[in-house]
Design a protein that fits this description.
The protein is of the alpha/beta class. The chain has 13 helices and 8 strands. The two termini are 36 Å apart.
């Protein structure tokens, strides 16, 4: 039985507390028992891998073993749930990614648990390679049953959540009759492209991959992304508008909105708070770089859709989602997009009691996003 307790709201990156908008927001929608999660977080004494990995991998392994037993007994539904819970705890363990050999092992364990969770899916999950510039990007593809080509969605991951963490989005896609390709973002998971504006070509290659699949109608392809993925869908929409018919952007930054002085300071403070933690081995440098207002302004010049000259290319239908109190991708980005583009092409939903990505309201915007995509890709 799920036990999703009423959590407080605090926008932060504190791995010693569980709040809506906080560090564990990434996994709250994927872990049913929030009481259990809070109990485990209370045992966290340090974020270095010598303390962090045994705790979270131990919990994950317990669920993985439970799933193995349930699968052997023929209870496939229960096993899938246990394997997915194991995947999410391994995901916490491997955060932010394969920065050390031990973290890489946790990444592999996460992928193993996810593959176990998907072993009996019908229609099945297909592990595929998207090719771009002679590089291969390991990705996950699913398509509804049937012989008639259907619409499809590229599910675009963000900075620290990998394709195994976004399998639920492909479930929503299939629920609405759409095929789905889930791919790691450049610089993360199994995508070796560097995170750079030019890496949009990897996403474009993913669109081309979908268009070439016999199950997919090449004229009915959209995209969905969260956090950095919310930025990437917009960048892709502007860079490949002839192939991308509709996009859903949950959060995302920078689009062209210039933050106020207070927002800039809050953003920099949040980044520097995150930069105080070491998720690698004891004695390693902190796992994230420090930030400054000047640095953030330089990134705006490098990344903003308005600076890249692609803002006016985004003419397809766009659905934008976020929490009003997002400290990482201020909702000013949404208002900026509402002020630009053809009349009638922009739709938005801002949740007034939520923060980054509004994960508190996942049960609302999750299925609604794919119902919206199905409508616009029909």
């Amino acid at each position: 039985m799920s036990n999703k307790i009423n959590l407080g709201f605090r926008p932060s990156e504190d791995p010693f507390e569980v709040d809506h908008g906080g560090f564990y927001r990434r996994w709250l929608s994927m872990i049913d028992d929030h009481d259990e999660l809070k109990a485990h977080v209370a045992k966290v004494t340090a974020t270095t891998e010598d303390q962090w990995l045994p705790l979270w991998c131990g919990i994950a392994k317990r669920y993985e073993n439970q799933g193995d037993s349930q699968e052997a007994a023929g209870d496939i539904n229960a096993a899938r749930k246990s394997f997915l819970t194991a995947k999410s705890y391994y995901s916490i363990a491997r955060y932010p990614g394969a920065i050390t050999p031990n973290k890489a092992a946790a990444c592999s364990a996460m992928a193993r648990a996810y593959q176990k969770a998907c072993a009996h899916l019908d229609p099945p999950l297909e592990v595929v390679d998207v090719v771009c510039d002679s590089k291969t990007i390991r990705s996950h593809f699913r398509a509804p049953k049937g012989t008639k080509p259907t619409g499809a969605v590229l599910i675009m991951c963000g900075y620290d959540m990998f394709k195994e963490d976004r399998g639920w989005a492909s479930d929503f896609a299939l629920d609405h009759g759409l095929a789905a390709l889930v791919m790691d973002a450049p610089g993360t998971g199994e995508n070796s492209f560097a995170w750079d504006p030019a890496s949009v070509k990897a996403w474009m290659a993913a669109i081309d991959y979908l268009a070439a699949r016999p199950e997919v109608d090449e004229n009915r392809i959209g995209a969905f992304g969260i956090s950095r993925g919310g930025y990437s869908v917009m960048q892709l929409a502007g860079a490949y508008r002839e192939k991308v018919q509709a996009v859903v952007a949950n959060a995302g930054h920078p689009f062209g909105y210039e933050m106020t002085d207070k927002e800039l300071q809050n953003f920099v403070d949040a980044r520097n708070a995150r930069a105080s933690f070491i998720f690698g081995a004891p004695g390693d440098k902190t796992s994230f770089e420090t930030w400054s207002i000047e640095y953030e302004k330089s990134l705006f010049k490098k990344w903003a859709l308005s600076e890249l000259g692609i803002l006016d290319n985004i003419t397809q239908p766009v659905l934008m989602i976020n929490g009003k109190h997002d400290h990482l991708a201020p909702v000013g980005n949404i208002y900026f997009m509402l002020e630009n583009g053809p009349v009638g092409t922009r739709t938005s939903r801002i949740y007034p009691d939520a923060g980054h990505c509004a994960f508190k309201h996942y049960n609302d915007w999750g299925p609604a996003s794919f119902a919206w995509l199905a409508k616009h890709l029909s």
